[in-house]
Amino acid sequence: MKNIKYWIWFTQAIGYCTCSAKQITSLYDSIEEFYLGGEREWRLSGLFSNTEIEKFCKTDLSVADEIIAKCNQLGYDMITLDDSYYPQCLKDIDDPPAVLYISGMLPDIDNRLSIAVIGTRRASHYGTSSSYQFAYNLASVGVTIVSGGALGIDCASHRGALAADGVTICVLGCGINYNYLMENAKMRSDITFKGAVISEYPPDCEPRPFHFPQRNRIISALSDGILLIESGEKSGSLITVNLGLEQDINKKIFALAGTNDPRFSGSNELIKENVASLVTDYTDILNSYSDLYATTEILPSALPDGEIIDVIPVKGSAPKKINNYDVNNLSEVPVHNHNVELSNDESTVYYAINSEPVHIDKISEITNMPVSKLLAVLTMLEIKGLIMCVQGRSYKLK
Q: Roughly what angle, to the nearest 10 degrees, separates helices 153-163 and 125-140?
Protein backbone atom coordinates (compact mmCIF):
# COMPACT_ATOMS: atom_id res chain seq x y z
CA MET A 1 0.00 0.00 0.00
CA LYS A 2 2.88 2.38 0.68
CA ASN A 3 3.64 2.71 -3.03
CA ILE A 4 0.15 3.97 -3.91
CA LYS A 5 0.85 7.60 -3.12
CA TYR A 6 4.03 7.61 -5.23
CA TRP A 7 2.24 6.12 -8.24
CA ILE A 8 -0.56 8.66 -7.86
CA TRP A 9 2.05 11.41 -7.65
CA PHE A 10 3.57 10.02 -10.83
CA THR A 11 0.26 10.13 -12.75
CA GLN A 12 -0.57 13.59 -11.46
CA ALA A 13 2.78 14.84 -12.72
CA ILE A 14 2.93 13.45 -16.26
CA GLY A 15 -0.42 11.85 -17.05
CA TYR A 16 -1.93 8.42 -17.43
CA CYS A 17 -1.39 6.62 -20.72
CA THR A 18 2.39 6.27 -20.76
CA CYS A 19 4.92 3.50 -21.31
CA SER A 20 7.28 4.98 -18.72
CA ALA A 21 5.31 3.56 -15.79
CA LYS A 22 6.13 0.02 -16.88
CA GLN A 23 9.73 1.00 -17.65
CA ILE A 24 10.16 2.29 -14.10
CA THR A 25 9.21 -1.13 -12.70
CA SER A 26 12.03 -2.73 -14.67
CA LEU A 27 14.66 -0.15 -13.63
CA TYR A 28 13.84 0.41 -9.95
CA ASP A 29 12.96 -1.81 -7.02
CA SER A 30 10.01 0.45 -6.28
CA ILE A 31 8.37 3.69 -7.38
CA GLU A 32 9.32 5.07 -3.94
CA GLU A 33 12.99 4.58 -4.81
CA PHE A 34 12.42 6.49 -8.04
CA TYR A 35 10.66 9.33 -6.20
CA LEU A 36 13.33 9.63 -3.52
CA GLY A 37 16.06 9.71 -6.18
CA GLY A 38 14.99 13.24 -7.02
CA GLU A 39 15.71 15.32 -10.09
CA ARG A 40 19.20 13.94 -10.65
CA GLU A 41 17.93 10.37 -10.72
CA TRP A 42 14.98 11.28 -12.95
CA ARG A 43 17.40 12.70 -15.50
CA LEU A 44 19.81 9.78 -15.26
CA SER A 45 17.00 7.30 -15.93
CA GLY A 46 16.81 8.58 -19.51
CA LEU A 47 13.06 8.01 -19.58
CA PHE A 48 11.78 11.56 -19.36
CA SER A 49 11.95 14.83 -21.26
CA ASN A 50 12.96 18.10 -19.63
CA THR A 51 9.31 19.14 -19.59
CA GLU A 52 8.29 15.96 -17.76
CA ILE A 53 11.09 16.37 -15.22
CA GLU A 54 9.92 19.93 -14.56
CA LYS A 55 6.43 18.56 -13.91
CA PHE A 56 7.84 16.04 -11.43
CA CYS A 57 9.60 18.88 -9.62
CA LYS A 58 6.44 21.00 -9.47
CA THR A 59 4.09 18.22 -8.31
CA ASP A 60 3.84 17.89 -4.54
CA LEU A 61 3.28 14.51 -2.92
CA SER A 62 0.39 16.00 -0.93
CA VAL A 63 -1.81 15.84 -4.05
CA ALA A 64 -1.64 12.06 -3.76
CA ASP A 65 -2.61 12.16 -0.08
CA GLU A 66 -5.73 14.15 -1.01
CA ILE A 67 -6.76 11.60 -3.66
CA ILE A 68 -6.17 8.69 -1.28
CA ALA A 69 -8.28 10.39 1.40
CA LYS A 70 -11.08 10.91 -1.14
CA CYS A 71 -10.98 7.23 -2.17
CA ASN A 72 -11.11 6.13 1.46
CA GLN A 73 -14.08 8.41 2.03
CA LEU A 74 -15.94 6.97 -0.98
CA GLY A 75 -14.95 3.37 -0.30
CA TYR A 76 -12.94 2.93 -3.51
CA ASP A 77 -10.08 0.48 -3.72
CA MET A 78 -6.78 1.35 -5.40
CA ILE A 79 -4.31 -1.09 -6.92
CA THR A 80 -1.03 -0.21 -8.60
CA LEU A 81 1.13 -1.66 -11.32
CA ASP A 82 3.41 -3.37 -8.78
CA ASP A 83 0.54 -4.80 -6.71
CA SER A 84 0.21 -8.61 -6.60
CA TYR A 85 -3.52 -8.28 -7.33
CA TYR A 86 -2.99 -6.16 -10.43
CA PRO A 87 -4.27 -8.10 -13.48
CA GLN A 88 -1.45 -9.74 -15.42
CA CYS A 89 -3.30 -9.10 -18.69
CA LEU A 90 -2.92 -5.37 -18.02
CA LYS A 91 0.72 -5.69 -16.97
CA ASP A 92 1.45 -7.33 -20.31
CA ILE A 93 0.60 -4.28 -22.43
CA ASP A 94 3.14 -1.53 -23.16
CA ASP A 95 1.24 1.23 -21.38
CA PRO A 96 -0.60 -0.27 -18.38
CA PRO A 97 -2.35 2.11 -15.98
CA ALA A 98 -0.05 2.98 -13.08
CA VAL A 99 -3.09 3.11 -10.79
CA LEU A 100 -6.54 1.55 -11.04
CA TYR A 101 -9.38 3.02 -8.97
CA ILE A 102 -12.06 0.43 -8.26
CA SER A 103 -15.64 0.60 -7.00
CA GLY A 104 -16.90 -2.89 -6.33
CA MET A 105 -14.82 -6.02 -6.68
CA LEU A 106 -12.55 -6.63 -9.64
CA PRO A 107 -12.99 -10.29 -10.63
CA ASP A 108 -10.07 -12.64 -11.14
CA ILE A 109 -9.88 -11.55 -14.75
CA ASP A 110 -6.74 -13.55 -15.53
CA ASN A 111 -8.57 -16.79 -14.72
CA ARG A 112 -11.99 -16.06 -16.19
CA LEU A 113 -13.06 -15.97 -19.81
CA SER A 114 -13.85 -12.31 -20.54
CA ILE A 115 -15.40 -10.74 -23.62
CA ALA A 116 -15.61 -7.01 -24.42
CA VAL A 117 -18.99 -6.14 -25.94
CA ILE A 118 -18.71 -2.77 -27.66
CA GLY A 119 -20.25 -0.57 -30.32
CA THR A 120 -21.67 2.82 -31.17
CA ARG A 121 -23.39 5.19 -28.75
CA ARG A 122 -26.04 5.96 -31.39
CA ALA A 123 -27.16 2.38 -31.68
CA SER A 124 -30.18 1.02 -33.51
CA HIS A 125 -32.82 -1.05 -31.75
CA TYR A 126 -31.32 -4.12 -33.43
CA GLY A 127 -27.89 -3.22 -32.08
CA THR A 128 -28.97 -2.62 -28.49
CA SER A 129 -31.20 -5.69 -28.34
CA SER A 130 -28.41 -7.85 -29.83
CA SER A 131 -25.87 -6.44 -27.38
CA TYR A 132 -28.17 -7.13 -24.46
CA GLN A 133 -28.88 -10.69 -25.63
CA PHE A 134 -25.24 -11.61 -26.29
CA ALA A 135 -24.14 -10.23 -22.93
CA TYR A 136 -27.02 -11.93 -21.13
CA ASN A 137 -26.26 -15.34 -22.61
CA LEU A 138 -22.49 -15.10 -22.17
CA ALA A 139 -22.79 -13.88 -18.58
CA SER A 140 -25.27 -16.68 -17.84
CA VAL A 141 -22.54 -19.25 -18.43
CA GLY A 142 -19.88 -17.43 -16.42
CA VAL A 143 -18.23 -15.15 -18.96
CA THR A 144 -17.19 -11.72 -17.65
CA ILE A 145 -18.57 -8.89 -19.80
CA VAL A 146 -16.32 -5.85 -20.24
CA SER A 147 -17.49 -2.53 -21.68
CA GLY A 148 -17.19 1.21 -21.31
CA GLY A 149 -20.38 2.38 -19.59
CA ALA A 150 -21.42 4.67 -22.45
CA LEU A 151 -24.87 5.02 -23.98
CA GLY A 152 -25.98 2.61 -26.69
CA ILE A 153 -24.17 -0.71 -27.03
CA ASP A 154 -22.04 -0.37 -23.88
CA CYS A 155 -25.03 0.29 -21.66
CA ALA A 156 -27.05 -2.55 -23.20
CA SER A 157 -24.22 -5.04 -22.66
CA HIS A 158 -23.81 -4.12 -18.99
CA ARG A 159 -27.57 -4.38 -18.44
CA GLY A 160 -27.69 -7.76 -20.17
CA ALA A 161 -24.97 -9.13 -17.90
CA LEU A 162 -26.70 -7.77 -14.81
CA ALA A 163 -30.04 -9.27 -15.89
CA ALA A 164 -28.33 -12.66 -16.08
CA ASP A 165 -26.97 -12.15 -12.55
CA GLY A 166 -23.54 -12.20 -14.14
CA VAL A 167 -20.27 -10.36 -13.69
CA THR A 168 -19.42 -7.23 -15.66
CA ILE A 169 -16.63 -4.63 -15.60
CA CYS A 170 -17.31 -1.02 -16.56
CA VAL A 171 -14.20 0.94 -17.61
CA LEU A 172 -14.79 4.70 -17.43
CA GLY A 173 -13.09 7.54 -19.25
CA CYS A 174 -13.46 9.78 -16.19
CA GLY A 175 -13.29 9.50 -12.42
CA ILE A 176 -15.72 7.04 -10.85
CA ASN A 177 -17.23 9.76 -8.67
CA TYR A 178 -17.74 12.22 -11.53
CA ASN A 179 -21.37 12.90 -12.49
CA TYR A 180 -21.06 11.20 -15.87
CA LEU A 181 -24.25 10.08 -17.65
CA MET A 182 -26.37 10.28 -14.52
CA GLU A 183 -29.13 8.29 -16.22
CA ASN A 184 -26.75 5.32 -15.88
CA ALA A 185 -25.86 6.00 -12.25
CA LYS A 186 -28.04 3.17 -10.90
CA MET A 187 -26.63 0.77 -13.47
CA ARG A 188 -23.08 1.59 -12.37
CA SER A 189 -24.12 1.13 -8.75
CA ASP A 190 -25.64 -2.27 -9.56
CA ILE A 191 -22.43 -3.31 -11.34
CA THR A 192 -20.43 -2.85 -8.13
CA PHE A 193 -22.45 -5.65 -6.48
CA LYS A 194 -21.60 -8.12 -9.26
CA GLY A 195 -18.32 -6.80 -10.62
CA ALA A 196 -16.52 -3.49 -10.74
CA VAL A 197 -16.57 0.04 -12.09
CA ILE A 198 -12.96 1.00 -12.71
CA SER A 199 -10.91 3.92 -13.99
CA GLU A 200 -7.29 5.00 -14.21
CA TYR A 201 -8.42 8.55 -13.41
CA PRO A 202 -8.87 9.88 -9.84
CA PRO A 203 -12.43 9.93 -8.42
CA ASP A 204 -13.47 13.45 -9.47
CA CYS A 205 -11.56 13.67 -12.76
CA GLU A 206 -13.81 15.04 -15.50
CA PRO A 207 -14.05 13.28 -18.86
CA ARG A 208 -11.99 14.69 -21.70
CA PRO A 209 -12.14 13.64 -25.37
CA PHE A 210 -8.73 11.94 -25.30
CA HIS A 211 -9.65 9.92 -22.20
CA PHE A 212 -11.97 7.63 -24.12
CA PRO A 213 -9.43 6.35 -26.65
CA GLN A 214 -7.04 5.91 -23.71
CA ARG A 215 -9.51 3.85 -21.68
CA ASN A 216 -10.18 1.64 -24.73
CA ARG A 217 -6.74 0.02 -24.31
CA ILE A 218 -7.87 -1.12 -20.84
CA ILE A 219 -11.10 -2.60 -22.20
CA SER A 220 -9.23 -4.55 -24.85
CA ALA A 221 -6.46 -5.69 -22.47
CA LEU A 222 -8.95 -7.04 -19.94
CA SER A 223 -10.69 -9.12 -22.60
CA ASP A 224 -9.87 -12.47 -24.17
CA GLY A 225 -11.94 -11.42 -27.16
CA ILE A 226 -13.82 -8.40 -28.51
CA LEU A 227 -17.37 -8.54 -29.83
CA LEU A 228 -18.26 -5.61 -32.08
CA ILE A 229 -22.04 -5.30 -32.23
CA GLU A 230 -22.63 -2.14 -34.26
CA SER A 231 -19.99 0.27 -35.50
CA GLY A 232 -19.81 3.01 -38.09
CA GLU A 233 -16.81 3.67 -40.29
CA LYS A 234 -15.20 6.08 -37.81
CA SER A 235 -16.55 4.67 -34.56
CA GLY A 236 -14.37 4.73 -31.46
CA SER A 237 -15.09 1.03 -31.12
CA LEU A 238 -12.74 0.39 -34.02
CA ILE A 239 -9.99 1.95 -31.88
CA THR A 240 -10.63 -0.73 -29.27
CA VAL A 241 -10.36 -3.46 -31.93
CA ASN A 242 -7.11 -2.04 -33.30
CA LEU A 243 -5.65 -1.66 -29.82
CA GLY A 244 -6.61 -5.23 -29.02
CA LEU A 245 -4.79 -6.52 -32.10
CA GLU A 246 -1.75 -4.38 -31.28
CA GLN A 247 -1.67 -5.80 -27.76
CA ASP A 248 -2.09 -9.38 -28.96
CA ILE A 249 -2.12 -10.26 -32.63
CA ASN A 250 -3.95 -13.48 -31.75
CA LYS A 251 -6.75 -11.78 -29.83
CA LYS A 252 -10.08 -12.98 -31.19
CA ILE A 253 -12.33 -10.36 -32.81
CA PHE A 254 -16.01 -11.06 -33.42
CA ALA A 255 -18.65 -8.98 -35.19
CA LEU A 256 -22.37 -9.15 -35.73
CA ALA A 257 -23.36 -8.65 -39.36
CA GLY A 258 -25.66 -5.69 -39.92
CA THR A 259 -27.67 -4.06 -42.66
CA ASN A 260 -26.49 -1.48 -45.19
CA ASP A 261 -27.16 1.19 -42.58
CA PRO A 262 -24.00 3.37 -42.13
CA ARG A 263 -24.11 2.52 -38.43
CA PHE A 264 -22.92 -0.99 -39.37
CA SER A 265 -20.34 -0.04 -41.99
CA GLY A 266 -17.35 -0.44 -39.68
CA SER A 267 -18.30 -3.84 -38.29
CA ASN A 268 -19.38 -5.12 -41.71
CA GLU A 269 -16.03 -4.08 -43.16
CA LEU A 270 -14.11 -6.00 -40.47
CA ILE A 271 -16.04 -9.13 -41.39
CA LYS A 272 -15.37 -8.64 -45.13
CA GLU A 273 -11.65 -8.15 -44.46
CA ASN A 274 -11.53 -11.29 -42.28
CA VAL A 275 -10.37 -9.23 -39.31
CA ALA A 276 -13.49 -10.24 -37.39
CA SER A 277 -15.29 -13.58 -37.29
CA LEU A 278 -18.98 -13.41 -38.11
CA VAL A 279 -21.17 -14.47 -35.18
CA THR A 280 -24.90 -15.05 -35.04
CA ASP A 281 -25.14 -16.63 -31.61
CA TYR A 282 -23.21 -16.52 -28.34
CA THR A 283 -22.21 -20.16 -28.78
CA ASP A 284 -20.12 -19.08 -31.77
CA ILE A 285 -17.95 -17.21 -29.28
CA LEU A 286 -17.79 -20.00 -26.71
CA ASN A 287 -16.80 -22.51 -29.37
CA SER A 288 -13.80 -20.32 -30.21
CA TYR A 289 -12.46 -20.85 -26.69
CA SER A 290 -12.77 -24.61 -26.35
CA ASP A 291 -9.21 -24.64 -24.97
CA LEU A 292 -10.07 -22.10 -22.24
CA TYR A 293 -13.71 -22.67 -21.48
CA ALA A 294 -13.66 -25.79 -19.34
CA THR A 295 -16.16 -28.59 -19.74
CA THR A 296 -17.74 -30.55 -16.92
CA GLU A 297 -15.38 -32.98 -15.25
CA ILE A 298 -17.07 -35.73 -13.26
CA LEU A 299 -15.00 -37.42 -10.60
CA PRO A 300 -15.27 -41.18 -11.21
CA SER A 301 -17.07 -42.27 -8.06
CA ALA A 302 -20.51 -41.95 -6.52
CA LEU A 303 -21.20 -40.04 -3.33
CA PRO A 304 -23.77 -40.94 -0.69
CA ASP A 305 -27.38 -40.54 -1.91
CA GLY A 306 -26.16 -41.30 -5.43
CA GLU A 307 -24.89 -37.76 -6.10
CA ILE A 308 -21.63 -36.91 -7.83
CA ILE A 309 -19.19 -34.05 -7.60
CA ASP A 310 -19.31 -31.68 -10.56
CA VAL A 311 -16.20 -29.57 -11.15
CA ILE A 312 -16.34 -26.75 -13.72
CA PRO A 313 -13.41 -24.35 -13.29
CA VAL A 314 -12.48 -21.71 -15.84
CA LYS A 315 -8.93 -21.67 -17.24
CA GLY A 316 -7.90 -24.30 -14.76
CA SER A 317 -8.50 -27.75 -13.37
CA ALA A 318 -10.09 -29.33 -10.31
CA PRO A 319 -8.18 -29.42 -7.01
CA LYS A 320 -6.45 -32.69 -6.08
CA LYS A 321 -7.87 -32.44 -2.57
CA ILE A 322 -11.26 -31.28 -1.41
CA ASN A 323 -11.34 -29.76 2.07
CA ASN A 324 -8.24 -31.84 2.82
CA TYR A 325 -10.02 -35.07 1.80
CA ASP A 326 -8.33 -37.30 -0.73
CA VAL A 327 -10.46 -37.44 -3.88
CA ASN A 328 -9.75 -41.17 -4.05
CA ASN A 329 -11.76 -41.60 -0.87
CA LEU A 330 -14.96 -39.86 -1.86
CA SER A 331 -17.09 -41.58 0.76
CA GLU A 332 -15.87 -38.94 3.23
CA VAL A 333 -16.35 -35.91 1.00
CA PRO A 334 -19.27 -33.49 1.52
CA VAL A 335 -21.55 -32.99 -1.49
CA HIS A 336 -20.62 -30.01 -3.68
CA ASN A 337 -22.92 -29.47 -6.63
CA HIS A 338 -22.95 -26.39 -8.86
CA ASN A 339 -23.62 -25.36 -12.44
CA VAL A 340 -21.67 -22.13 -12.64
CA GLU A 341 -18.12 -21.53 -13.74
CA LEU A 342 -15.42 -21.18 -11.10
CA SER A 343 -11.95 -19.73 -11.33
CA ASN A 344 -9.01 -21.61 -9.83
CA ASP A 345 -9.23 -19.63 -6.59
CA GLU A 346 -13.02 -19.96 -6.39
CA SER A 347 -12.81 -23.72 -6.94
CA THR A 348 -10.11 -24.10 -4.27
CA VAL A 349 -12.10 -22.11 -1.70
CA TYR A 350 -15.43 -23.73 -2.59
CA TYR A 351 -14.07 -27.19 -1.89
CA ALA A 352 -12.62 -26.04 1.43
CA ILE A 353 -16.17 -25.39 2.70
CA ASN A 354 -18.75 -27.99 3.69
CA SER A 355 -22.24 -28.21 5.14
CA GLU A 356 -21.02 -27.26 8.63
CA PRO A 357 -19.77 -23.68 9.29
CA VAL A 358 -16.04 -23.23 8.64
CA HIS A 359 -14.32 -20.17 10.09
CA ILE A 360 -12.49 -17.88 7.66
CA ASP A 361 -9.20 -18.49 9.45
CA LYS A 362 -9.59 -22.24 8.91
CA ILE A 363 -10.43 -21.69 5.23
CA SER A 364 -7.30 -19.54 4.93
CA GLU A 365 -5.24 -22.33 6.53
CA ILE A 366 -6.70 -25.03 4.24
CA THR A 367 -6.30 -23.02 1.03
CA ASN A 368 -3.05 -21.28 1.98
CA MET A 369 -4.70 -18.04 0.86
CA PRO A 370 -4.35 -14.73 2.77
CA VAL A 371 -7.57 -13.46 4.34
CA SER A 372 -7.35 -10.21 2.35
CA LYS A 373 -7.58 -12.18 -0.91
CA LEU A 374 -9.90 -14.82 0.52
CA LEU A 375 -12.61 -12.27 1.32
CA ALA A 376 -12.95 -11.33 -2.35
CA VAL A 377 -13.23 -14.99 -3.40
CA LEU A 378 -15.79 -15.74 -0.68
CA THR A 379 -17.87 -12.78 -1.83
CA MET A 380 -17.89 -14.13 -5.39
CA LEU A 381 -19.03 -17.55 -4.15
CA GLU A 382 -21.81 -15.88 -2.16
CA ILE A 383 -22.89 -13.92 -5.23
CA LYS A 384 -23.00 -17.17 -7.22
CA GLY A 385 -25.29 -18.66 -4.59
CA LEU A 386 -22.91 -21.47 -3.60
CA ILE A 387 -22.11 -20.54 0.00
CA MET A 388 -23.51 -18.40 2.79
CA CYS A 389 -21.93 -16.41 5.59
CA VAL A 390 -23.04 -17.33 9.09
CA GLN A 391 -22.34 -15.74 12.43
CA GLY A 392 -18.74 -15.24 13.46
CA ARG A 393 -17.12 -14.94 10.00
CA SER A 394 -17.85 -18.56 9.19
CA TYR A 395 -19.12 -19.97 5.91
CA LYS A 396 -21.03 -23.07 4.85
CA LEU A 397 -22.54 -24.56 1.72
CA LYS A 398 -25.84 -23.06 0.72
A: 40
